[in-house]
Amino acid sequence: MWDFDEDSFITLTDENGNEVDFLLLDVMSYEGSDYMVLLPLTDEEDDEGEEELFFLHVERTDEGEIYSSVEDEALLCAIADAYEKEFLQKMKESGAEATEEE
Known about the structure:
Layout: E1 9-13, E2 19-30, E3 33-40, E4 54-61, E5 64-69, H1 73-94
Antiparallel strand pairs: 1-2, 2-3, 3-4, 4-5
């Protein structure tokens, strides 16, 4: 279902100056804006043992793209929900079985 190439792996610098490697899962549109969906390539998991996805707002300028975190919690939840629905739809279309946790 997924076809990753060298462009699927990116390194970004966090606010502390640390480089973090990510797998770019998707670029999605939500309410007229584009967002990168990123999976950090670390061994760390959240408190519930799940890997955390990151959503970065993509702004295109004459100088290139600017990536910024989504600070509005309600917007972030809405983007994550929209991505989950899109992901599940792609899984269904590909014939893959997906399970949702209650």
